[in-house]
# Entry
Amino acid sequence: MKTKLLILAVVLAAVLLVGAAPKALAQQTSPIAEPSLTTPPAPPPRYARGRIVINPPPLLYRRCVDWYELQHRPSGTVLFPQMHCWWVRG
# Structure
């Protein structure tokens, strides 16, 4: 009976020590690994990636000219807007 209690106590102590070991190691960090407020931030990467143009300029666009024209109607003369548009290479 005493042997069983002794073995149980040794196993229990081993489990507690193994469970506490990773926590103790995690708390022991070097001062080099800790960030501080006095150290400058890391420099930007040496080479920046090139930008990709997603919206290229259109190959064609519309050019328009507008004006007002007098039109003679049965009810009287009317000032009427006119517009002429055409496609231009851009």
Q: What stands out?
A: The two ends are 98 Å apart (CA to CA). DSSP finds one helix and two strands in the chain. Strands lie at 60-73, 76-89. The longest helix spans residues 2-27.
